[in-house]
Write a structure and sequence with these properties.
Elements lengths: L14 H12 L5 H11 L2 H10 L10 H7 L5 H8 L4 H5 L2 H13 L16 H16 L21 H8 L4 H13 L5 H8 L9 H13 L1
Helix pairs in contact: 1-3, 3-5, 9-10, 10-11, 10-12
Length: 222
């Protein structure tokens, strides 16, 4: 399984989902788009989850890219997660724009983005700017911003991001401080040492991005 789907995590699969993947894989590639398209259009939630999770195992998986992108329009978290989380399909077949929109919607839907495969490898300047705009929009509405957001900024945060970084470092929420510190360090800002020192943050004791994501997920569920 992992040779085809490196993000495969058995704990996120059910027996009936695996059985559906076996069925999908047996369909001839010359007509499986029509057959699976009809199944997806008529599927209930559980069937949709299995079908979307199974796309990557098809010999002609790339031909279902638009189907997967269309599937992300859903507001049903289980269906969205089937495409976006623990799934290498998006990183293998999505171009930059649909990838960025997927990450943004994952945050909007309060999904755990640390489970997006190749999240760090697919970071880009456009996404960093989208994340900053989204954070500003949330703050203007007096709403909280997930500390995971700053993972997509890391490496691309220039001096234009300093007001946001400063705000996060002064937060009373520790995970926000950690996330800002990591984004500052990974962006290689010349002010990083002084900013972290002023905030009283030891860069050698910072948690990993995945640890920040897991803790944020736990706190959100409580």
């Amino acid at each position: 399984m992992q040779a085809i789907q490196p993000a495969f995590n058995l704990s996120t699969w059910t027996v009936d989902e695996l059985a559906r993947v076996a069925f999908m894989s047996c369909l001839p590639t010359e007509n499986n788009q029509a057959t699976l398209g009809k199944l997806i259009d008529a599927a209930d939630m559980r069937e949709s989850v299995a079908l979307y999770k199974g796309l990557i195992f098809l010999d002609n998986a790339e031909e279902f890219t638009l189907r997967a992108i269309d599937g992300l329009r859903t507001n049903i978290s289980h269906v969205f997660d089937a495409i976006a989380l623990d799934n290498a399909f998006p990183t293998q077949y999505f171009e930059e724009d649909p990838w960025n929109q997927m990450v943004l919607k994952a945050l909007f839907m309060q999904r755990p983005i640390y489970r997006i495969w190749d999240l760090d490898e697919r970071r880009n300047k456009t996404l960093a700017l989208i994340m900053r705009d989204y954070a500003q929009e949330r703050w203007s509405g007096h709403r909280q911003v997930s500390p995971e957001l700053w993972r997509s900024v890391a490496g691309y945060g220039d001096e234009n991001f300093l007001p946001e970084f400063d705000k996060m470092l002064k937060s009373e929420y520790e995970l926000e401080q950690f996330a800002a510190a990591k984004a500052i360090i990974e962006s290689k800002l010349p002010q990083s040492e002084s900013m972290l020192q002023a905030a009283g943050i030891n860069k050698d004791s910072l948690p990993s991005w995945d640890e920040i994501g897991r803790q944020a997920e736990i706190e959100a569920s409580n």
